[in-house]
Amino acid sequence: MYADASTGTGKRIAYQRRLARRTQQELACAAGIALGTVRKTERGERGVGEAVLDAIAAALGVDVTCLLPRRDRAEDRVHRAMPELSAVIATYDMPGDGRTRSLDELREAVAEVVRWRLAAQYGLSTCVFPVGLRTFSPNSDVPSTTGPRSAGRKSPELLVAAYRSADAVAYKYGAHDLSARLIGIMGWAAVQAENPLLEAMVAYTRTETYFAAQAHAAGLRALEDVLDAVPQRPAGPVAVAVREALHTRAAVIAGRAGKTDVAAAHLSDARSLAAHIPEVTYQGTVFGPETVRIHELSVAVSLGEDFAQQALDRVGSWAPSVALTAERRSGFCIELARAQLWSGRPDQALVSLQTARQIAPQHTREHLWVREDAATLRRLKRGDAESLSKFAEWCGAGR
Questions:
Q1: CA–CA distance, 314 with 145 (Å, rounded to integer)
Q2: Can you tell me the distance from the alpha carbon of 53 to that of 60, in angstroms, rounded to the nearest whole number?
Q3: Per-domain residue ranges for the chain?
Q4: Quick one: which of 262, 249, 185 has its CA closest to 219?
Q5: Among 247, 274, 282, which Cα is nearest to 263's?
Q6: 1-72 belongs to which CATH class?
Q7: Helical (H) or strand (E) element with 287
Q8: Which end of the chain is more exposed for a tag (fewer CB within 10 A), N or C?
């Protein structure tokens, strides 16, 4: 979503700011952007990108559509892109019709969509997926990493990264069948790469299908099978991070399955592994000590309402650092809100949900728990703060 200077978006921002009784400086501070950006945008001297629009909308407590002339929301663009994305996947093994790109160009393009995924900028991702994924057709003119052109050896690592970014959007927007098809292609590519760690990370992603089907016990068995197959004593930070990833996800799905002791054991293993690596991106996902702390909350919440206080005790006053990805931080706030709501702290829960929105609006808006918890808050605090009503309307609580 990009609004150029001629669309009148600046006037709409100024109007909503005055309704909120905020100065330009106050809006800039609340949205985390420069004062000069606010001034130039309101005067129509510059366009405004998706991240800035979302930040301004969150700071003003309005839907981003209120700032756009065509009422075009990021999620609307995502849903419009799904049929074309589905068509691309249906023909993924047919010859591509796009231009050949060098490996350097492909790496740069994939790195960009991975950054968008980790920043929860799903609207930006869907602008390039249908065209970009055709480039990664097994029979398209993608340069081979080793030897002559063949379907099995054309940058499978890049293919997995590209399709994983598309899967993140499909899964979060409820297109679970499409997500499963994307993961299937990722699995095929990982086998071609002959890289056990890449295969393990595809298995980590495949757990989404078990979450979607609520087949938690089966998902736990699948992850534990993968853990048995990868090196028990990983060599190097990537291998350590992959085992940590598998253990953290196994801990969460064990919690969903009600297996308290199993979840605790996997968390303990993940914690031991995380102590040996820095918090950076490995195989397209961030792992490290902070990630384990976030998953400690995730596991406690997954175990259910009776563990809510345990979840809050684990967190205390800790919060993830701003260096962590937006998707991770917003997810933490969403889970924290659920624990706070279960513990009889509705005001704190609303603050946590609003914080999640400021960090990653698209991720927060499409999260099922956000809609459920906002609807619960609305029932508990009927007729209360206007900010709650606005938030519930923004996320579609009750839909």
A1: 46
A2: 11
A3: 1-72, 74-194, 205-303, 328-399
A4: 249
A5: 247
A6: mainly alpha
A7: strand 285-287
A8: C
